[in-house]
Amino acid sequence: MLREEAIKMITERRILSPTIDEKMRGKTITQIYGMNVFNEKNMEKFLSYKVFHSLQKIIKEGGVIDASLAEEVASGMKEWAISRGATHFTHWFHPLTGLTAEKHDSFLSFDRSGHPIERFSGSNLIQGEPDASSFPSGGLRSTFEARGYTAWDPSSPAFLVEGINGVTLCIPSLFLSYRGDALDKKTPLLRSMESLSIQAIRILRLFGNRSVTRVWTTVGPEQEYFLVDKEYFNRRPDLILTGRTLFGAKPPKGQEMEDHYFGSIRERVLAFMQEVDNELLKLGVPVKTRHNEVAPSQFEIAPIFEDSNIATDHNQIVMEVLRKVASKHNFAILLHEKPFAGINGSGKHNNWSLCDSDGNNLLDPGKTPHDNLQFLTFFISTIYAVYKYGDLLRASIASAGNDHRLGANEAPPAIISVFIGEQLTSILNNIETNKSPDYTDSAIIDLGLSKIPSINKDQTDRNRTSPFAFTGNKFEFRAVGSSQSIAPANYTLNTIVADVLKDVADKIESLIKSGKSLNQSVMEVLIPMIKESEPVRFEGNNYDPEWEKEAKKRGLPNKKTTPEAIADFMVKKNVEVFVRHNVLSEEEISSRYKILLEQYIKTVNIEAECALTIAKTMILPVCMKHQNNLLSATSAINDKIQKELVNKYVALVSDFITKITELERAMDKKDSIEDEEKKAEFFCKEILPAMNRLRACADLLEEETDDSLWPLPKYREMLFVY
Ligand code: ADP
Ligand code: MG
Hints:
- This protein is an alpha+beta fold.
- Strands 10, 11, 12, 13, 14, 15, 16, 17 and 18 form a nine-stranded mixed beta sheet that branches.
- Helix 13 (369-388) runs parallel beside helix 20 (518-532) and helix 19 (487-513) packs across helix 20.
- The longest helix is centred in the last third of the chain and has 49 residues, at 586-634.
- It is globular.
- The model has no long low-confidence stretch (mean pLDDT 92).
- The chain binds adenosine-5'-diphosphate and magnesium ion.
- The site of adenosine-5'-diphosphate has 16 residues, from strand 10, strand 12 and strand 15.
């Protein structure tokens, strides 16, 4: 009945009027873009000439902001924010929960004579002290000890969040303990960018570049998501509490017709997307692309790439705006990696590259063999880093949600391999097998280096199954989960590449010192790396079961579950690489590991409790009713076939009750396991399978039970009726 009601309400829904503010509708994209951001344009207007230029220099080149500069920036920022209606400000940060956090303070203060004034000081800007003792710290900080504090990150611009009843100034910040330990996801990201910059510049200097002052990583995350109508969502406790459906029979039609991908966007969804784009443009998020994805009710939004720090903030903003706007349009947004069994999950393709301060993409093949040798140095170093630290990359994207996706036949698998395309493969093979010790420019051209500029993107981008694919001038890390912060994937990637570049620079420098030419030195360093990292290169179909066997032969790790995958954080070489580059200390790594374990346990625990509640209080009563109906309908009939049907149903219900009991018994054991690693393993190996068995049984019942009784909105409804 509840389901029918929902369908009726949804059918009656119309988009009655535009949801974007009248004032905004005539505006061009360039007029809207960044209007709620304290960007260069607004800074110039609200800061003095001198302050503006000092701040710009620090934003672009790094450096310390002193108290007087902070005071003036704060005052300008406040004027701007107030002119736009802001009453409150907040440090906006990324604690280890994976979400963002904010604690608002008003600008209200009093002057000496007790009159109310609006005040926002330099120290308000630079540092915040939220009573944030309840955020996970993994033991880095006890609750009775000092609180953590937030520190302004001037490299990511402040922005205004408009609510229905007011405006808040948000200041992107880091979150640290008083000892300076990172308690957030952004601090290590900034540290990793620093380290990568230093090492990349060393390589550029070897190739004769004198002008570059900074190298940063660029990221363009493509965000996938599902939309379901709120009426369905509110009738599914599993979606509300866990973000995914814990029950639900496969619908007669799934995604096999492939009629959704790039299909025309329904009016109701388009209205939602238009408002999302509008809100994001105001916040300076350079959204570019929107389309239907492969699965029914699945969509994607992708921005133009940016500096990875800003891209990380912006991706977080994208997820928040999606949520907010969805609700206004009577949709619920599902960012979970696998909201529907048997239907594609959602990921985040993390497009990653390196850009120098002269504006060159270092992963773009150049015009000359010399340029291409430099390109190859960065290219091969990245592949080598993925080879050496594939386990760490896998760990960086591990979560209970992503486990459902990696390893299913749709998303990049848990085996991390690199796809580079035919042309680059043949170039690497040429280089590797080149016996002649001739390293003059002409000999190097013969190896295929002059051909690189002809690579065209469409040729390299065909393999959609690879978790780490080179796509013309960037690598695309596709195993990131749709709900995750992209920070861990990126600080890991930055760190491991920085580490390899450091080694490469050390070696080339010393070979040159010993009298060898640049070409020869570079080749001598790269050739063994090409050879050694060959096992990680895979051009075939990553979904093919044969690949699993092949990867095993090659010695590539294949960690299918989070408990196994995150254990690799604690492996010596992996701890060392973070420590060596000052990205994470040993304590910070082990605290992160503890938090991930804890989160895994809590997530599966909530899922199991939720599954039991639904099974016992929603599904079982309905099945009993249907069983009764069957029994009473057939009691007066003496027909074998009908009796069999009833018996079959009765047996199914009994089986369901058994499965409930089994899951309950398993859950009874969890508290006796003290050790967190063992507990995580228990949830992985005992609880999840018991949940799956319960689900399988419930899904059979769904297919046999009177449709008008079934309490949970069905897949066919959630995915197709909106
Ligand atoms: P697709 O992968 O769907 O074919 P594109 O290759 O055009 O689409 O781009 C996908 C994403 O990659 C976009 O978000 C884009 O901004 C980003 N991207 C493009 N170039 C770079 C780069 N140099 N660094 C990081 N991201 C990039
Ligand atoms: Mg892509």
